[in-house]
Structures are given as C-alpha cells and as structure tokens.
C-alpha cells in the first residue's frame, strides 16, 4: 500500500479528503499533456508517471522505481515498459519488473513491485483509477449523459487553481454566487437575488435547487457518484447564444497538492447535425471568451480565500447544499478508513 502524501492535519479523515478519496476515477490532465516522452504529474497525494507506447496507448505507474526510488518518468520508453534512468531497471505497465540489467535473475525480476494504475482517455482528458493496491479490473467509468450522449457536444476547459479542491466543489454547490459574483454575465444577469432552496435525492447523489425559480439563472447544482464524483449544472442561454437550449457544465476537481487543484469543466450543449457545427463555431469565436471571464471571477475569489476560511464560517440557509456535500464526503472518508483498518487486521 502506498502512503498518502499529505496530512499536516492530525485528523485522518481530513487528511484523506485533502488528498482525495481512494478507489475512484479522477481526471488528472488533458490528453494533450502526454506526447512522445514520459510525463510526471503530482496528483491525489502521489507522483505518477504517464507514457504512450508505439500505438499511442496510455500507461501509468507510480513515478518511483522499486529498486531505489528514482523517477521512472525520466527513463526510456520500451513499449509497455519504462527503463529507469538510474540503473536500467525495466518496469512493465502492470507494475512487474521484467529486467534488472545489473543483476540478472535477482529476486526483483518478475516481482510486481511497482504500483500501476488503470487509465482511460475520454472527452479530451486522462482519467485514472486511484487505487492503493493492484486492481486487475477497475469498476466502469460512468459519466453524465452530457458527455456520453450522442446528441451532446462538449468542450473541455482545464485550469489549475491555487487552493483546496473542496473550495472548488463548494463554489459549484452554491448557485447563489452566480447572482452576485457573475451578475454581469450575459447568461447570469436575470432572476431574483433572493431564493429558497431544497435538496432532492437522486439515484446517484442529490440536487440542490431553488424552489421558486427554474430556467432563469444558475438555479440548481447536482452532485453524483458513479465510480467517479462529478457535479453538473445548467445555465439558460439567451437567443444570441445559438442553438441547443440551456448551456450545461459537468465538473470534476482533482487535488494536485495541499493547496493546488486541477479543475475540469466540460461545457456542453445538446445539439446535433448542422446545429452542432453552428454551435461549436459560435462557441469558439464568440462565447468561449465570455465563459473564461466568468471562470476567472471564480478563480480570483477562491485563490484570495485563506486556507482555513472554511473553519471560520457563519453559514445560512443558502449553504445547505454545501453542508450536505461536506457531510457526504466525510462519511465516505470514514468508511474508507474503516475498511483500510479492517483489511490490516485481517492481514
């Protein structure tokens, strides 16, 4: 088992939440990050080596040679293997050491001594299954219909923000901030500045929504768990926004470190045929800049917040969704820690 590399907090639940829950799929980078050479990324309390073989298939190992801990990402690609630059030890994509040039036949050869990860490329991003041990077959990566449906089109927006990934999730689980922070936006200038909210359970999570206003502004947020945690929302577009009805956003937020987050927003519209082409052209040439402006407003606000801001809050009714999300995540962290402790006892 690989140690979680975070934890200034004494509370193990907080430490796990800061690093990211285990045994889930996470997006870790855009596909374009991995080209001809191996890449090293810090994500989820780990250092991960990514590379492509001659066919372009993506592989991932912990960026730690099982011999002496040198970075495999600085080595040579040998198809589905990496050769460590320090002593030439070759590690296959499943974590098995296939060759030790300096000591042929030693015990390290043939052992599954490196931690491997399952990876998939979908919708312009690399997804990694964040397991603590070797998993032969991970659970399926299930994404919302806005990304998987044939009638939907999307663009990936990727940014890295200075701050805890939970602040990003809190921001998305807060529809009211759109009324104030983004009030000059062409898509969030309408609607009431006061609202009542309710929580509605779903098969995969819950929806936090305004009770008296629908289809006007940023009026609801959904959190879902389908072997990956995601959030989604919809923002009505004016007629000048082109075809496709409301503009939908699917988001995932992956911790890079204690104070850095990889933020993934897929901007989606339900369009097909020539309407799809029209919307994609309009988005690239007119609408995208406006959405980046809105995202920049969020970044500036979140990066200016103190790391302990969520320890000194005075919450009110509009924050019930945030409270529900935080409780949900803490419960999942407790369950993972209990399962880990039980596994140790059994071993």
Automatic annotation (TrEMBL):
Source domain of life: Bacteria
Keyword vocabulary terms for this entry: 2Fe-2S, Dioxygenase, Iron, Iron-sulfur, Metal-binding, Oxidoreductase
Gene3D superfamilies: Naphthalene 1,2-dioxygenase Alpha Subunit, Chain A, domain 1, Rieske [2Fe-2S] iron-sulphur domain
Protein name, per record: Aromatic ring-hydroxylating dioxygenase subunit alpha
SUPFAM superfamilies tied to this protein: Bet v1-like (SSF55961), ISP domain (SSF50022)
Residues of the Rieske domain: 25-128
GO MF annotations in UniProt: 2 iron, 2 sulfur cluster binding; dioxygenase activity; metal ion binding
Pfam family, one: Rieske
